[in-house]
Give the backbone structure.
Amino acid sequence: MKGIDRREFLKIGGMAAIAGLGGKAAFEILAPGKLEAAQQIPLTKGKHWAMVVDTTKMDDALMDVCIEACHKEHNVPNLGNPKEEIKWIWKETYEHAFPGQEHEYIGERFHGMNFLLMCNHCTNPPCVRVCPTQSTWKREDGVVMMDMHRCIGCRFCMAACPYGARSFNWGDPQRVRTDEKLMPMNPGFPRNKDYPTRSKGVVEKCNFCAERLAKGDQPACVEAAAKVRKGALVFGDLADPHSEVRKVLKENYTIRRKPELGTGPNLFFIV
Amino acid sequence: MLDTALKGTQRYWGWLIFLLVLMGIGLGCYLYQFQEGLRVTGMSRDVSWGFYIAQFTYLVGVAAGGVMVVLPYYLHDYKAFGRITILGEFLAIAAVVMCLLFIFVDLGNPVRIMNVIMYPTPNSILFWDMIVLNGYLLLNVLIGWNVLSAERKGIHYPGWVKTLIYISIPWAFSIHTVTAFLYAGLPGRHFWLTAIMAARFLASAFAAGPALLLLLCLIVRRVSRFDPGEKAVRTLGGIVTYAFILNIFFLLLEVFTAFYSQIPGHMHSFVYLFAGYEGFGKLVPWMWTSVGFAILALILLIVPGTRRKDDTLAVGCAAVIISSWIDKGMGLVIGGFVPNTFDRVFEYWPTTPEILITIGVWATGFFVLTVLYKIAVSVKEEVGA
């Protein structure tokens, strides 16, 4: 090399790399997430999205409709194995959905009653706090997002989530298209060609249908539930005093999962 | 100095080849895991960290334990440790290498590992764990290498190394404190949500690290002409004893808090680990094995007669290592996940590929350790220390 010898070249290159990383780190500390918030999905005009589940209008069949709609929308595979299960929205009995709040004299209808659970899109989400790559972050409209194309699969967010709302792709989800045993359980997979596919080794979870919200639609589960029974699921903007969610929250007693942890769940249950 | 690692007895080469075989088997299994995904492990959406992260947690302690010889020597001028500080530093290097490998094999998407550096995230404890672990590795490589090569040349090591040595002392505490924070700050995981976690981690580290170092000293004395010194071995034995007593004491504090408060979430993990919960108790025999070895260790280490005899001291140290390995590794990590956040039990047990990969990583660590110790011991023999 002319003008610059190898030693010099390495020195300059090394310094540039350190300066680059250091500069980037400084930027992240001063303005976190501003540099590269990989948001392919545009923000909505909402300020604080929340969901209310009216358990008096819910039943198991309706919950199945909601689950089906969601898992279809987001190409959630059925892997036929609880160890590898991926679920964005699911059913859980009262005593396990609200451990510590059950007791033997509780209202009869709660015995073994199923609740519809999903990511709580917490106001103060621990999963976001622990993620080392900002693969999961909270948007200004209150949706806790997950970038499945940046996730390194450390699963720290799964340890941090007190609600078991996060799933991991222990294997390749695409194998349901070729695996003879899994094919019958996943007809036509992937069923929504518009939703991005993912690989093995990444975490995923409910995103409040951010891709639908961007178009002004309601989440898939809410839309599906409304076709069966009005008001079983209510979705809307808590920041808007005239919204439907604010109205039902004002008129009903609601509970949230593990409120004492300070995560601020935005999934409410009318009981 | 690397040349000294290339001249060795048949036994030395045989040991290295044995380790290489284990590394090869581990690598083969890792390639299988890389292809199939982490589904080849026993982990699940309920127990999302398992054997790998347990080994990592344990080995951070071993790495931090090295400071128990560095600190007395450099801060208190405790001369007896002068002969073995290099062994402590080299053990730390091997342990940190294993830590980093265990994190790597645990990643679902290892090819994206640079995302941690490309998207630096100061609010994530894992980000800081990466900083402190790599920093500690670098510190020990620089310090160990420079001090040893100065010793070989018969000169004093350069002044800047002294600065690094002083930095390395609080740094050793930081690696285990930060690792404890990976667990201690999570809501809804009662078993880990305890302010004493970092203290517990350090206590077990200062028992397990020096216990392993002590065993290695005894081995070095047997296979080479270098003698780490009687006084150093005796003092290490004392450190292991006090640290292990403290470790057990801290564990009992946790048990008291859980069971006197009677808060279900705080009791359930202990019940699961030591008695079984709702009919599940895969780890119960393991945890009682840990208790058994802890009692054996306490007896052998506290009774002066057995602590001062090399054979019984070695058995005591081995018991410390086994007991803390079970408790800190499997017990701590799995106990945090079982019962899960729904108060349901989904058990975990490592699979064969998982165990073989783990053995492969340990073999890699011992390979690094053997080569480094060979270099250190050769230099010591050369200068007639």
In short: The mean pLDDT of chain B is 95. The first helix of chain B runs from residue 10 to 36. Chain B touches chain A through 49 residues (CB under 8 Å). The CA atoms of residues 277 and 332 of chain B lie 16 Å apart.
